[in-house]
Amino acid sequence: MKIVLTGASRGIGLGAARLLLAKGHQLMGTGKDAARLEAAARELQALGEFHPVVADLARPAEAAAVIKATAEKTWGALDALINNAAIGGVDKSFLEAPASDLGQVLDVNLLAPHHLTKALLPLLEKGREPRVINVSSGSGQFQTLQSFRNDPAYCLSKYSLNALTILWSHTLKGKVAVNSMHPGWIRSDMGGPNAPDDLATGGRRILDALEKPFSETGKFWYGKEEMAW
Question: Domain 2-226 in CATH: superfamily?
Answer without folding.
Answer: NAD(P)-binding Rossmann-like Domain (3.40.50.720)
